[in-house]
Q: What sequence folds into this?
């Protein structure tokens, strides 16, 4: 028996040391400074066990994706597409425009060919997705509700993916991002634990990133007013006038009278906006980007920041061919409908370009991040915002820990009084259970929340319940006249099935809560699940090993303190 106890004790020691290592050190090699002070140890534990929004503080945001705007944009594009389709087969189009988020109208000049026009457009659009009606010389195409709902669902999923990419770039630890409310509401819940600049994060999340590189029409002529620019456009449909972000700046100086770099100057509020005529057809768009990053304007970092972008292979080849044929001409860098700059093409450009302007370091980095993550499919608006302060989270931690300790002390006192020295067995098993629970959370990067602390307290109760079942079984066997060793063996064997049954059902319930629950409920499920799995090990393996150690010290044990 002693050899068996020794083997089991070595397993328990290995598990305990591994758990403590994960909690105190994490997944890295240990360093001497890890244990230089108690404060450093606490810092290590705080780093390895991540805290949720309700404990660490941070921002709680509920956003709505304006999905009908994405549908409206799709209808606008389809209206232009329908016009191109019909003109390619010789049907003159008087007007093509969207009527709503799911409806567009095409008016043709030749009403006699309207049936042909309907069939040709539906052949391209898809007869299963669009319905068409004819009224005189006008075709009205309506997107089916089934397909419209699918487009809305995809828009929300795409928005969530882009938001996730932008948040990950900020380095927010364990953000919560999920659908919120009814599916028809198209809302997203975002929780950002520990963010130190929530306003910057919020602005970056909804920042647009519609980048286009468009040819400048004709010469580099600029127009002082929009009316002058529109007059220059005239009846042409292949070009348009866009505002140019080249405004006069104030002469700014620091406290010593030295001129500030351009990045620290602000445009005059009354400075006029110029306009430039550019082609409507871009050479490169935002989805062609492979990478984008911010860089300082000069070698020593004193100057405007700029954004350097790199194109994907196919787009780089296309861009290289176009710039090679248009050396000496202008190329407008259009961002969200405004021309940031319009450089002259001095030579062939392949995969790398840059966006210049009056960018600060933060604005350049944010815009580069948005360009990397891609454009949102539709506008996002904030419906709800709550901020949890770190002090409130610290109070929650103190109160939760105090409640856990109070419950633990009460239970330990009861176990020692009622079960005597066997109660000490239960105490050691319970402490190891908590150590393994925290190690599991650190190992898998789980987030501890306030409901998670409730899960820890419930785990304590479940662990004690398991020990009570075992001890009462042993008592029954002793009252039946069994020898002490046999009573312990039978007690564990008979209680094991009951413990396993109760734990399996609770584990399944925890998994359901984790899969279908929201953030706080999932935090509760994670701690409960980890605690239950640890309890199966401690209540049966660890507790039985300690009983075996006590009994192995005597040749024929005749009594057991239980």
A:
């Amino acid at each position: 028996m002693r050899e068996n106890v020794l083997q089991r004790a070595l397993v328990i020691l290995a598990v305990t040391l591994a758990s403590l290592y994960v909690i105190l050190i994490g997944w890295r090699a240990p360093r001497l400074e890890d244990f230089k002070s108690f404060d450093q140890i606490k810092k290590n534990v705080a780093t390895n066990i991540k805290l949720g929004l309700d404990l660490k503080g941070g921002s709680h945001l509920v956003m709505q994706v304006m999905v009908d705007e994405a549908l409206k944009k799709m209808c606008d594009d389809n209206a232009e597409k329908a016009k191109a389709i019909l003109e390619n087969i010789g049907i003159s189009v008087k007007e093509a425009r969207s009527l709503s988020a799911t409806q567009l109208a095409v008016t043709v000049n030749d009403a006699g060919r309207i049936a042909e026009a309907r069939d040709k457009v539906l052949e391209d659009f898809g007869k299963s997705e669009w319905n068409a009606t004819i009224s005189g010389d006008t075709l009205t195409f309506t997107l089916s509700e089934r397909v419209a709902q699918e487009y809305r669902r995809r828009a929300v999923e795409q928005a969530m993916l882009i938001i996730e990419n932008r948040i990950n770039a900020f380095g927010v630890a364990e953000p919560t991002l999920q659908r919120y409310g009814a599916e028809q509401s198209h809302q997203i819940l975002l929780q950002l634990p520990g963010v130190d600049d929530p306003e910057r994060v919020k602005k970056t999340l909804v920042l647009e990133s519609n980048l286009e590189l468009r040819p400048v029409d004709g010469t580099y002529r600029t127009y002082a007013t929009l009316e002058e620019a529109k007059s220059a456009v005239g009846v042409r449909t292949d070009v348009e006038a866009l505002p140019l972000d080249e405004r006069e700046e104030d002469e700014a100086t620091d406290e010593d009278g030295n001129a500030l770099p351009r990045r620290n100057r602000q445009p005059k509020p009354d400075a006029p906006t110029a306009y430039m005529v550019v082609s409507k057809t871009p050479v490169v768009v935002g989805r062609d980007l492979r990478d984008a990053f911010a860089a300082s304007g000069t070698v020593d970092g004193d100057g405007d920041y700029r954004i350097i972008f790199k194109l994907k292979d196919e787009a780089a080849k296309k861009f290289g061919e176009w710039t090679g044929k248009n050396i000496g001409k202008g190329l407008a860098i259009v961002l969200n409908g405004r021309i940031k700059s319009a450089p002259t093409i001095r030579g062939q450009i392949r995969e790398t370009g840059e966006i210049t302007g009056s960018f600060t370091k933060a604005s350049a980095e944010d815009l580069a991040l948005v360009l990397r993550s891609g454009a949102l499919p539709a506008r996002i608006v904030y419906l709800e915002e709550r901020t949890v302060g770190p002090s409130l989270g610290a109070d929650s931690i103190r109160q939760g820990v105090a409640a856990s300790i109070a419950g633990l002390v009460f239970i330990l006192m009861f176990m020692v009084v009622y079960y005597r020295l066997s109660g000490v067995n239960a105490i050691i098993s319970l402490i190891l259970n908590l150590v393994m629970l925290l190690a599991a959370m650190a190992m898998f990067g789980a987030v501890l929340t306030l409901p998670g602390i409730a899960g820890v307290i419930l785990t304590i109760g479940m662990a004690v319940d398991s020990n009570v079942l075992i001890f009462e079984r042993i008592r029954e066997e002793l009252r039946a006249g069994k020898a002490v060793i046999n009573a312990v063996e039978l007690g564990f064997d008979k209680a094991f099935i009951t413990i396993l049954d109760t734990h399996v059902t609770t584990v399944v319930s925890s998994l359901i809560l984790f899969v279908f629950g929201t953030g706080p409920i999932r935090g509760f499920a994670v701690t409960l699940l980890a605690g239950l799995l640890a309890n199966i090990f401690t209540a049966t393996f660890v507790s039985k090993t300690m009983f075996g150690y006590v009994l192995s010290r005597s040749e024929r044990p005749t009594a057991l303190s239980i």
User: Anything to note?
Assistant: Residues 247-271 have pLDDT under 50 and may be disordered. The longest helix spans residues 519-552. The chain is about 50% helix and 20% strand.
